[in-house]
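request received
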Amino acid sequence: MLLEYFQMIDRVVALSPEAITVCSHVPEASPVFEGHFPGHPLVPGVLLIETMAQASGYMLLARMGFARMPFLASVKEAKLRSFVAPLAELTIEASLVHEGSGYSVTSARIVSDGKRICDSELSFRVLDFPDPRLEAAMRKRAAEIGLNEVPAP
Amino acid sequence: MASAFERIADIIAENSEVKREDITPDSHVINDLGIDSLDFLDIVFAIDKAFGIKVPVEAWTQEVNAGTAPAEQYFVMKNLAARIDELVAAKQA
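response:
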């Protein structure tokens, strides 16, 4: 996990057409922690939501064979239940709720050490890649986190 | 059971700031009711769920943008309700 580069996912653990499980290790230090908060470093809640969105996004990308790109559109019923401090180990789960015409909806949650961290329902606009560099970057990062290597759960 | 128009109007009122009484069969969803794209996404999701269909919004939008169909065909309430009825009937056929 590199918070300052929005690299929220470290590794794909399990993947099926309608669900994904990924894991992430919160680093000990990050520029983000210098401001959030001095003397009391915590992963910002918005980045926990981003983490759930990225897990959902990789599931959707895999499902679509990287034909299109999901962009986060809405966050519903988000509950930030527990603080996340440096060195935490996170497990992120996302599942498909609905696949519509030009959009998808997922349900996602993060757990750490058996404790519920956060959960939400997320909506995505699904659009053509606006730039081939974005598609290349998504494919590269997906390969780095092992999106294409894991067996179905 | 309520008509498709009634159900869609209820869904719009529940998923936007539009008052239910302001929605008529001749209302244009975007031009008259002012539904923005994000509210429309929520509304389509709710319609998909309520009717058990997949509203082909992308195909409709492409037709309108290409000039092969008037926007009113899909986005005026009475016509939208008719399209939903057609989709439900096609699914049940």
